[in-house]
Amino acid sequence: MKKIAILLLLPLILFGREFRVASYNVENLFDLKKSGTEYTEYIPFTGYGWNEKTNGIKLKNIARVICDMKPDIIALQEIESDEALHSLQRAVAQCGLDLPFRAVADEKPTTVKTALLSKFPIIFKREIDPDGTTRSRSILEAAVSIDGRKLTLFVNHWKSRSGPESRRIVSAKALMKRLKELDGDYIVLGDLNSNWNESKEILRSRRLNDTGGVTGIGHILKTWKGKRGVDKHNIAPPYHTNLWLELSPQRRWSHNFYGRKGSLDHIILPASMFDDRGINYIDRSFRRFTPRYLFKKNGAVYRWQLAKKGHGKHLGAGYSDHLPIYAEFTTEPFSFVKRENRKESFNKRSGKIETIKTSVEDLYKMAPGTCRAVISEVVVIYKKGHVAIIKEPGGRAILVYKDTDSLSLGRKYKLLIERIYRYRGLQEVTEISVLKDLGRAETEPLLLSNPENIDMKRHVNEVIGEIEGVYRRGYLYYGKNRKIKLYYKDRSKRPKSGENILLCNVRIGLYKNRPEIVVEY
């Protein structure tokens, strides 16, 4: 048994683990029990229509966002109770994402609370109460174990911007006091109701500025130094860096209040996340999660819909008034990603990230995260459900996951690749934009036909036109003493052991770092 355990751990020791941490203000996820602290429109079973039906729609919608984003850890804000959190946990499991560990800051009776769902075991939990009153929400402190490495997360939801900065300073001071006591890697995240450049923003508002220009996010948490944000290139304790700095200024927003865009949601890191020990940040992996369904046709964020401009009956549609954000982390040492390796360049004059032409082959060499890479011509050679395979004529193929609505089988496109993700060791594309539809294309010449030997480097993400063999105990035996793992999405369609089978138009995926054939019909 000891030998087996060592073998199972060996890949993690050799290659480290990568994981995704997200934050999402879900806009008032309430349960169906009357506790006396609810907002009026969320008192269950009244004329406002918060009932099993609307609660179920809200859970399904938020779960869809989380499942599509695929975080390993997600910080949540505006959760009413552990019961509401547990319901969301079950809804997420139903759509295919297992986050079995949860925690919520529920020691004091605030209307909404901070919470956490995690793939990794939660080994410690406590709450930081900023002022001992219900005027401020508790900060959830939760430590998780990442393959034996401890990572502490601080989930925040500071006082809203309807009040002055002094109310947020209270939370910032309580948090910073705890951070100074902490030894080890940590992440500060959540809805701080402050912009990334709040130290500048506050000087423009007499209503907010009752602190002489001092801000909780900038001066107390020390994400600001002098006249600019703290950069990861020269960060040192006790300063922190705000990951919003990785995006161009035009993209630094996750909340849109009547046309005024703000970066209220944050992932903030200490210097220890940029070294060669413990857990580290994957450079330039910070991202907003922006699938099309989170926006209305006019571009507004598709928040949870209530009649009378948000003060009436539940309409049973929408998601949240915030966009989720996320970043990638690793148990390997930190390393900077050069811009040229990400196929993009930064124009200092315009302040914009510019695109560079590339190939599908180059996509496999890129680090996971944001990119702006143009591929002049690819053909959609496979499309089933949320999965599409695009292939460059004369080149390689790669999988596109979820963001496939604009792609049609048998057509060729000029594409802008905007997001690369690595899932179980397999590189894939998760965000694209069609720059030009180049018309119909023949797919058959681009498919593999009964290959003699399927290997990981050449054939993963390719599509097999046809392959014939014998099915035995989960494997297809084909060619001369060749075999490959066979995965049926619908288990009821698996053939009997020993049966001769012919498979057509099936894709090659990855299972435990080995190729497998995926049958999705």
Sum this structure up briefly:
With 521 residues, the chain is an alpha+beta fold. Helices cover 16% and strands 37% of the residues.
Report on this structure.
With 521 residues, this protein is of the alpha+beta class. It folds into three domains: 16-330, Deoxyribonuclease I, Chain A (4-Layer Sandwich); 339-443, Beta Barrel (OB fold (Dihydrolipoamide Acetyltransferase, E2P)); 447-519, OB fold (Dihydrolipoamide Acetyltransferase, E2P). Helix content is 16%, strand content 37%. The chain is built from nine helices and 30 strands. The protein has helices at 2-15, 52-69, 82-94, 165-181, 198-201, 216-220, 307-310, 360-363, 456-459; strands at residues 18-29, 73-79, 101-104, 113-118, 122-128, 139-146, 149-157, 185-191, 224-225, 228-229, 240-242, 255-257, 260-262, 265-270, 280-281, 287-288, 325-330, 344-347, 352-357, 369-384, 387-391, 397-401, 411-423, 426-440, 448-449, 463-472, 475-478, 482-488, 499-511, 514-519. The strands form six sheets. Strands 1, 2, 3, 4, 15, 16 and 17 form a seven-stranded mixed β-sheet that branches. The protein has a six-stranded mixed β-sheet with strand order 5-6-7-8-14-11. A five-stranded mixed barrel has the order 20-21-22-24-23. Helix 2 crosses helix 3. The chain is globular, with a radius of gyration of 24 Å. Mean pLDDT is 88; it is low at 1-14 and 339-354.
